[in-house]
Every structure is written in C-alpha cells, then in structure tokens.
Amino acid sequence: MHAHASEGIGEEAIPLALLLLADGRLPAGGHAHSSGMEQAVDDGIVADLESLEEVLLGRLETVGVLEARAAARACWLARRYDVTARMEAETLGTALADLDAAFTARLASSVARQASRAQGSAHARLGRRAFPDAAPLFDAAGRTPHLAVALGLLSAATGARPGAAAALAAYHAVAGPASAALRLLGLDPVGVTATIARLVRHAAALVAAAPGAGELPLLTSPVLEILHERHHERKERLFAS
Amino acid sequence: MSSSGRVRAVAACVGGRTVVTHLESSGLSAARATPWGLHLVAAGASPLDGDELELDVRLEAGARLDVRGVGAPMARRSSRGGDALASRMAVRAVVAGGARLGYLPAPGIAAGGSTHRCEAVVELGAGAELVWRDEVVLGRFGEPTPGTWWSARRVVHDGHPMLASEVGLGPGAPLWRNRGVTAGARAFASLLLVGPALAPANGQSVSIDGARAAALTLEGPGIDLVALGDVLARCRVALYELLRGLAGSLPEWMLVAGCAAVREAA
C-alpha cells in the first residue's frame, strides 16, 4: 500500500507527508482549541514566556506523554494491519476500541475528552481524503477517535513508524496551546518558537523509546483538568477548549 | 528491615443484612468489623520506608460496607539512614453489582524524607455503588520540607476502564511545583462517586481561598471530584461546595455519604 518518498534524516527516515501533519495550517480545526490555555491566561497562570514554558512542560510530561504513547500504539497497530497484513480488520477495530477505552479513562475531564474527539474526528476526515488508501484504518477507529489515535493512524498512513507518531503527538500537545498563548498574550512569536523548540528537544528524549505495547501512562495534571472545567463554564470564550 | 501487613475482608448480604464473612489480617495491619463497618488499625507503626501494606476487600451482591481508617496513616522515613525506599500501600476492591462500598480512610500524611506510593485497583460490577475518598497532606504540622506521596487509582466498571489517574505530590515528584500540574499544593483531596442512579451532570468548578476544585464527569456512571490546596480543610470545603452544586444529579444516599465524607473530622 505504501511507496512514499522518504528523506533520510540522520538514521531515521521521516516520510515527507508526515511534515504535512505537523503543519499548523492543516485544516483540521486545531486553531479553535487552546487546550486550557485560554483559562490559564485568564487565571494569571500563564502571563509571559517563562510561565508559558513551565505550563507547557507540565502539559507535555502528563497528557503530552499519554498522547504520544497512544499515537505510537495506534500507529503500531495500523502498521501490523497494513504493512504486514498480519491483522484482520476486525482485530484492528477491537484493538483500537481497547486503546480508545484506556485513553478515555485517563482523561477524567469530559471537556478534555470532547476536545480530543472533536479534533480527532476532523483529522480522521482529513485522513480519508488525503490518504484514500488508508481509509480502512479510519473505518476501524470509529467516527470519533481521540486526536492522539487519529494522529497515530495518519502517521501510519504516511509510512511513519510509531516513534515518529509519538513525536508528532507530543509536538501537537505543545504547539497548539503555545500558538493560542501567542495570540492571547501578544507574545513575541520568535520567543514562542524558541520555547517550542526547547520543549520539542525535551519531548524527543521522553518519547524516543515510545513502545507500541504496554500500559499507557497514568500521571495526570489536576490543575489542567480544573482549567478545562472552568473554561467550559464561561459564557464568553475565544477558543472551543 | 522492612515489614509488611495484609488485610483481607469479604462481605456478603445474608438475609438482608451485611455480614463480614471472612476477615484476616497479618503483620503491621489489623482490622475490626463493627456494626459501623470495617475499621483498619495500624497494629505496628505507620508505614516506614520499604514497608508493603496490602488491603483486599470484596463485596458480594447486595452487601453494603464502609471501610474506615483509625488514625491517619503517616509515611515516615526510618532512622536507619541511607537512601530511603518507598513504602507502598496496595488496595484492591471488588464490588459486585448491587453492592455498595464506602472507602473512607483517614488522610495520608507524607512526613519529611518519606516516599509513599498508594495504588488502588477497583473493580466494579454493573450496578455497583461507590464512594471512594483519597486525601493527602504533605508534611506534619509546621514541617518545612514534606515527604513525597504518589497516589494512583485504576477503576474498572463492568469490564471497561473508567478512571486511570495518578498524582504525585512533594519534592520527589518532579512536576509537583509546576504551576500547570499541581502548583506546589500541600493538600490534595478527591472523592469518586459511582452508581447507576447518578444522572449525567455538567462539570463544575469552584475556587475558594487557597483551594481550587472541579467535578469531572467520567464516561460511565461516575463523577470524580478533585481539589488542590494549601490545607486539607480548604480542599474539603471546596468538595462540599461541588457536592451542593451536584445535589440534583446525585441519588440521596450518595449526597449524604459524600457530604459526610468531606465534613467528618480529618
């Protein structure tokens, strides 16, 4: 199914199509979500580049690592189905349903779950159009996959390996809220980019060995969960989450 | 030398009354069955580094049991010196459909230099009812440098994962001071409510001087109330306010049990 052009970067071959998925201009609705950042700004938790980096680091090491591991697992499952044809579509569907349930139990905030599924659905719709050969993957994931699962399946559709899927999900976990903070606080865009670059280097070490199997991490961020709920209660908001 | 302790209890509904049909305890732990529930007693000392404690509770269909602690479990560092090992408490609860468990241990206290890990695994049958309290206070009164407390909860309902969550508080938890994770909180309180009559509620949040809290609506018939703050009393006030806001969504027994759980003496 795959014959995508790859460019060797170091020892890792990164499919060029994977870059498309990390592009902020990807029309998958990501710009509408601040993932708690709008509330963090209003509550004074994030006020400048320094506090932004701290909050994004906390996010990366909790929900970011969770999303990275879930994306790696979805990619790993998709490659077993897709590349080696060792897995039946029904088995893939069952395995993705188990992954969905395990991931859902780790997002205690229903607001966070809704935001994750809204973005995941948009990515899956985009995936069906952009990678028609991979449609069976998205069929197996159901109508409203979590964002992390959709990113894992999209990564597999580009021919990427689970490690690259994990890196993509970790990047999404920081780049989206960072961009929201940039707009909300009018921060220096180059400074925000430098912040993202530092966090991405840190993320690379965190997710380098993201295994496709094993239990998903449990570590949660109560502050972020509370921010999600507070944001949802507001009457006026610029971002959906 | 580290020690261990274990309590196993089984409760069943016999002729409309709950009877503790099996109770065994060994080592550091002891338990007494009273008309008011099962009381855990630390027979030896509170957990020192390396200690392993185990609690296994099983409720058969129709049984109703409250599990309470007598005195706060305090994790301490032994005076043996060297690198402290973590003390560990493993709690496993199996609650059949139609049974009701109130797990209401005293708040855990992480004294300076200690590291404690609490891991709870709860298996609920369809229709099981649960009030599960989990509270942590960092440091003894006036202690400037507290210990570290990790608390993990894994809850399965009718065969599906319902909640899987861990918090780490104290200087040994790398994200403790991170303002986007736990913001250096010295107290954490949570109250997990599960039951078939629980109406789906919108999430809510409250912010009270020194504490912030939210009601998190889980997938399945459960709500997790979580609070972070400087002191436990404020966290409890925040949880009480959340319960008042949820009054219309909770069955009466659950509202009463939840309010009692956050108002009794800590």
Structural description of this entry:
By secondary structure, chain A is mainly α. In chain A, a hairpin with a 2-residue loop joins strand 1 (6-9) and strand 2 (12-15). Chain A has a two-stranded antiparallel sheet with strand order 1-2. Chain A contains 10 helices and 2 strands; from the N terminus they run ββαααααααααα. The longest helix of chain A has 34 residues, at 49-82. Chain A starts with 5 loop residues before the first strand and ends in an 8-residue tail after the last helix. Chain B has helices at 232-245, 252-263, and strands at residues 4-14, 17-27, 29-34, 37-42, 52-59, 64-70, 74-75, 87-95, 100-104, 108-110, 115-124, 129-138, 148-157, 160-169, 187-194, 204-208, 211-217, 222-229. By secondary structure, chain B is mainly beta. Chain B contains 2 helices and 18 strands. The longest helix of chain B has 14 residues, at 232-245. The chains are: A mainly alpha (241), B mainly beta (266). At the A-B interface, helix 3, helix 4, helix 5 and helix 10 of A face strand 13, strand 14, strand 16, strand 17 and strand 18 of B.
Index terms:
heterodimer; A: 241 residues; mainly alpha; two-stranded antiparallel ribbon; 10 helices; 66% helix; 3% strand; globular; disordered N terminus; B: 266 residues; mainly beta; eleven-stranded mixed sheet; seven-stranded mixed sheet
Question: Quick recap of the structure?
Answer:
The complex is a heterodimer of chains A (241) and B (266). Chain A has 241 residues and is mainly α. In chain A, 66% of the residues lie in helices and 3% in strands.
